[in-house]
TrEMBL record:
<dbReference type="InterPro" id="IPR028082">
    <property type="entry name" value="Peripla_BP_I"/>
</dbReference>
<dbReference type="Pfam" id="PF13407">
    <property type="entry name" value="Peripla_BP_4"/>
</dbReference>
<protein>
    <submittedName>
        <fullName>Galactofuranose ABC transporter, galactofuranose-binding protein YtfQ</fullName>
    </submittedName>
</protein>
<dbReference type="InterPro" id="IPR054837">
    <property type="entry name" value="YtfQ_transport"/>
</dbReference>
<dbReference type="InterPro" id="IPR025997">
    <property type="entry name" value="SBP_2_dom"/>
</dbReference>
<feature type="signal peptide">
    <location>
        <begin position="1"/>
        <end position="16"/>
    </location>
</feature>
<comment type="similarity">
    <text>Belongs to the bacterial solute-binding protein 2 family.</text>
</comment>
<keyword id="KW-0732">Signal</keyword>
<feature type="domain" description="Periplasmic binding protein">
    <location>
        <begin position="24"/>
        <end position="264"/>
    </location>
</feature>
Amino acid sequence: AALFASTALAALPAAAETVGFAQIGSESGWRAAETTVTRQEAEKRGHDLKFADAQQKQENQIKAVKTFIAQGVDAILLAPVVATGWDQVLQEAKEAEIPVVLLDRQVDSSEDLYLTAVGSDLEHEGRVAGEWLVQQVGDRTCNVVELQGTTGSSPAIKRKAGFEAGIAGHDNITITRSQTADFTRTKGKEVMESFLKAEGGDEICALYAHNDDMAVGAIQAIKEAGKKPGTDILVVSIDAVPDIFQAMAAGEANATVELTPNMAGPAFDALEAYWKNGTVPPKFIQTESKLYTQADDPQAIYESKKDLGY
Ligand code: GYE
């Protein structure tokens, strides 16, 4: 790629490289924003981004990675849909000497199979949500329903464990139902409907959703069931997408933990240093997590975020 840059692509910075991005899909607003930001970062830095959408299927992602290897790209960005099953394809990339950077989700594979991973502390996010709920309910009895992310994905596993740790020791708070809704709005609504109709559906005090999109779907289900989300049923979730701030401004959601959609910035920074001087980054580059509540002027935050292409 460096040769190219000095001749045919003279307008690009000298270090223009080709990068394959094996994205999960567009299951959530956060995911769509991550794709947008990744394209913007690549363009800004003069890299050629090859994009593959796996429609939430690991099989498709593995195929995409193999194709990138065959094309001889200079690096691969991989947002792994689930945590297991990556050893072989990561080994192939390693043998081809193509650095792989994991984005936002983690894998169970050995660390020497990828260059670095950019992401948040997923367990911490869940714990922050749990601790927020503990503060809210005090000594009151609170039955919580949980909407889990994609089964087998690192955020679903860690956000569940983190929340449980956050409420640990508070016997007044109980998770009464917990089911996957695959990080989507549609399934969030469907599963919440089933929670509300099931035994104990009238005694739900709070909803914890592993992402905002499922919470937004669930809010709709709560309203259709004749209850007030945000008051009758507290709503706490993760991502901080524009729509959850709109719900917070309307009093229909209570809190969210922010996850930046800009995983590509730190990923390209690490790759550029690696390409240039062989600098090996740390194995984990952690992004910040921040809790937002209704007290944080959600309307203003919505206005400031909505243009990001969420
Ligand atoms: O929270 C969710 C998305 O992998 C951490 O995936 C990410 C999660 C994010 O679909 O909205």
